[in-house]
Design a protein that fits this description.
Chain A: This is N-methylhydantoinase B. The complex is a heterodimer. By secondary structure, chain A is of the alpha+beta class. Chain A is built from 15 helices and 19 strands. Chain B is α+β, with helices and mostly antiparallel strands.
Chain lengths: ~575, ~700
Amino acid sequence: MRANHPLSRIEYQVMWNRLISVVEEQAQTLVRTAFGTATREAGDLSAGVYDTQGRMLAQAVTGTPGHVNSMAMSVGYVLDKVPLAKMNDGDAFIVNDPWQGTGHLNDIVIVTPTFRRGTAVGLFACTLHVVDIGGRGIMGAAQQVYEEGLYLPITKIVDRGEMNQWLIDIIAANVREPVQVIGDIYSEISSNEVGGKRLVAMMDEFGLEHLDDLAKHILDHSREASLAAINRLPHGTYHNTMMVDGINGKSMEIKAKLTIGPDGIDVDFAGSPGMVQLGINVPLCYTEAYTSFGVKCIVAPHVPNNAASLATIRVTAPEGCILNAKHPAPVAARSIIGQMLPDVVFGCLQQALPDGVPAEGTSCLWNVRLMGGMGRVDGDPAVLQKATPFNVTSFHSGGTGARPKLDGLSATAFPSGVRNVPIEITETIAPVLVWSKEYRTDSGGAGEYRGGLGQIMEVESAEDMPFGISTSFDRVVYPPRGRAGGLAGMTGRVELASGKTLPPKAHSSIPVGERLRVSMPGGGGYGDPRKRPAAKVADDVARGLVSVEKARELYGVAVTADFAVDEPETAKLRMAVAAE
Amino acid sequence: MPPATSPEAIRLAVDIGGTFTDVVLETPDARYSTKVLTTKAAPEDGVLDGMLRALKLAKMAPSAVGLIVHGTTLATNAIIERKGARTALVTTKGFRDSIEMAQENRFEQYDIFIEKPEPLVPRTLRFTVPERVDAKGAVRLALDENAVGELAQTLKAQGVEAIAVGFLHSYANPAHERRAGEILAAALPGVRVSLSSEVCPEVREYERFSTTCANAYVQPLMARYLENLRKRIAAAGFGCPVLLMTSGGGLTTLETAARFPIRLVESGPAGGVILSTWIAERFGIDRILSFDMGGTTAKICIIDDGKPMASRSFEVDRRYRFMKGSGLPVRIPVIEMVEIGAGGGSLAGVDEMKRITVGPESAGSDPGPACYRLGGVRPAVTDANVVLGRIDPDRFAGGSITLDAGLSRGAVDAHVGAPLELDTTLAAFGISEVVEENMANAARVHAVERGAELEGRTLIAFGGGAPLHAARLAEKLGIADVLIPASAGVGSAVGFLRAPIAFEVVRSRFVRLASFDAASVNAMFAEMEKEATDVVKLGAAPGAKITISRSADMRYAGQGHEILVELPDGPFTATSVAELRKRFEAGYRTLFSRVVPGVDVEVTGWILKAETPAPGRSDQADLGPPGPLMSGAGAPRSDETRNLFDPMLRDYTSVPVYQRKTLKAGQVLQGPAVIAEDETTTIITSGFVATLDPSGAIRLTAKSAVLQEAAQ
């Protein structure tokens, strides 16, 4: 190609667009063939294409910021262990090492080299979350990663087109849902193959012998665009702290220092607490993923993810800090704190960009992870023998923080982008009955812009058996804070409907005849609630999103029985506050 | 074939679009068409006006017409403009918010300022009653009939005009919904009630409830409109039946349309695809890519062996860059199309990565592209086409608008050329390459999602913008054969006249092949067949043969997404299991390249479609427009030349311009060349040869393919 001709710029762009379309095809294949609900229903997966140096050139936009650049690094580790020259057409590699993959054993990465006319031209990688990997579960009592399940270092799973059946058998023997897990691995292998085919077709069409020039074009432009976006912000160093619930009644203060400079943004978590003996520790790769996601949302949302755009955001944390946990720390539930990191970053960025960032939200997913049958729940073995064994994860969310000029989103995932699992699907695959799944009145933080509402779910066994829940929830002690005068959202709660509180980060059993109730947090509010137009407050009351009492107490709005604004009373209420 | 004098052979098609109502009248030997403005307040006025005009052109009386086929965007517009009925949702206690929580996700990952689509029924009009059915259809909590009765009074007091009833797992056991529906209907005479188990009997509560709400929401409006139309048509002296076009590409009766009006959305685009299907059949082509490009969007559909790809998932009102998830889901039988924000009015710019962007933002018709001189300053695709010589600024839309090429150049320069340091021509070429690449990528991703290959297909292009871009799109997709039919401007209405009467019914019932019970599946299909044929018979000619086709949504047990598998005809037996697995795995391998060993296969949904040709549909060769086209060939004549930018030559070249109306069947034109007509312009790039077909269609063949053929 005539690299200097102006036309080549148009051609490069066309090829760049094509590459993005190729990884979208790769991701689509994964969604459509996967077995686990995490991938097929919730979109918890990622897919990307790499040059022969292991630099990510394009990544599909999927539901999981946790894989944003963690998966990108996996390819580098694979190439370190198996140089390209030693790879063959039809090979594929597997890895779930939390420190070389995406942060915990449940995420399985598959890396596949793509060959064209006998030469390796690039690689494809994808990641998905398998429903079980053995061990003690996501929120089990594991004190080391050894107890968290099957650990797969970088290993060849397909050799020149032949499945490594020995390895498949080992995996199948070590997980509780072998059909789903093996099916998911097949699905990943297929999706990389689809990506590879498309890449070769594209190179044929454009007559490309290698991706080097195209890679340079993509990476140069992405770096420039990222830096341009960053340099629109005032340079400086900004600090923020945020309390998270922690474990066993010991809360934690996450500290961040964010520096905006001409070469990018540096985020350092020095001063944050050390590791704990429960799987909420976060490997650095996962810390990087959610931190850069948070920065990107605010600073450069339109620049696609690739090696160059991600390199402009650098994340550090001292070794042994909970945000840079070292092997063999347990890390299965690394998402709890990981997903809180965008809120921590927002608090820094707000100082550089007033009116540019939302209030804090629920942030960590409130996945309802249920199980039943022998060995999965406390109860009389004679009774449990008759119970249907099951494991099901249903993805759910509390409210997001209010945005400058917009209310928060109710029962919506952020920063994670996963979809929920329909109740009718959950009930089809597991012996449970969900009796309620509705908005939680007054949970959204009051503000000129209201925080998104959380929701309440009530669940019962469908076969009069005890069942278990593995909780991995935060924002039970410390609520999402409001911003710019907005109030905090409501904290979350896990309990039996009869009243007994259950722990937010543990495995609990629900006895026969009891219902489980999960009340999810609401997002923080934005701006002074007394500035919210009274008509909007009355509308919230009519919709049952805000109670009459809270409308009066927090918003200073009196709402009549037929949901109209009591104007004189409201004026009095709002005047009284203004006078204070 | 009916004799020429049979009244059934005289048929009218009416397509109500957002701006125009198109009418086509066909007799066995002629076709007449007219366009009138859509009369939004009372659409039947425009319909009547258009039909009478068409009859006048043909010098015929209303009584001569044997059938009216009608498609309309009224239901879609009511949803987009939120002008439907005051609708209530009655649902299972505890699930008041299912339709608002939707999938609990954000359709755009990095934009923290998105707003989610507002449900059609606000929380204040969503009510719950105690009742519960489980996944197997067993009653866990009996329906509280008193609560339903009391609720009826509330709904009355609220002035509700339509009711949607959606209970959990009603696809497995509809008894509670039916009973609640009866109680509400009895207490609220005149208010229509839509049951989710009838509108969309499929698992996944959000999609089912959303579809049911949409049906209820448009029902009063559509029922009223259809009734008015029926009366007006009768009063005007038409004695013939009226059939409605559905999104699935089949026709249905007024009665069924009034019951399931949601099935009428997207009927216009479906008509276009039916036309493509018809043309493909006529030309004996079995693999088609149908390509429709207008002012705002482009729509692409894959057609194999005379069957457009079907689906049951569709979103109305995608508000955010046409993105998946930003609209309201409706699960109805639809012809599956990808729609992307790429039309003549789509605006171009440069993003942070110095990439040219095109669409989905559109200049619309006001201010329109810069060259319209209506104040548009940003360049649209049409402006790029003017710069590249593809559009003659003096003869746009038959000369009704004179375009200002200088304004096009200025806009392209300012917004794309200058930021990228490209000259005007290359900037315009960049815009057209990007819009064509966007369409090509959408087609590619769509094809992979459906396990189809694009190579070797024939592209059928219609709509004002498609013939300008068809040749280049074909080059990008490795397609060597392009057809541009005559009368492309009223393509949808012409398509209506080719559609069969059809009705599709669906059941969600989970059956593992390992425990396949042939008798119960046969019984279910018998019931479905009766339901579907009863609907089809309402519109069919007496004694017409009704064809049944069956398919199933199948997957490996444990997966979450199904593939559509055609089922064999005839009753199932114990030995059918092997055949079902074979068909599933063949389909699975096509889509995903490998099968998964040792896993049971499960059917989740069962689909049955009954269809019969519409009365009087002629199976004769398609009609071409009357005139010189039909008479003999010869060398094509061109009186003018134009400077056209050719993408393969990467430069301007002087090319002949032909007027389509002067071309004769059998004539051959070498690209690069331009064929001009009032509604559009066909660009023949240097890689193609064009031939004129007796039907009036232009057929482009890649020169490489011509050479190959000659060599053989």
